[in-house]
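Entry — protein

Goal — fold tokens:
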Amino acid sequence: METYLFLTTQDKKKLIKLADAKQLSISTTAGIIINHLDFLVADMYDNYISKGEKQIHIKIKQINKHDLTSITATNCIYCYFNKPLYKGQKINWQNNAIQSELDKTEDPNRFKNIEIRIAYRLKKGKL
């Protein structure tokens, strides 16, 4: 499944930092968070909670069988990092299942994007 995330600069940095800490790619990290939160977030919000200025194109392995929208994907990442209240109620956005999966996942494609960028720059003679 492919979609776009519209993140703020702060949330993008948090996502990158989390991916580096767990030794995962950004898309794998985002995919884990989105797969755990998408049903919950899709039921709660039908528009962007906070639409950031940074656009990221990601490909994720989606275990759920419904279409993922950029609104839901962006809201999942926002909720994970910013923990908004929903109708005055606290929700555990960073639940144990997400943390456990982030810790257990091994990502052989962690450096794939970096390798592709280096190969592209070598081809263009800009390295």
User: Anything to note?
Assistant: The two ends are 32 Å apart (CA to CA).
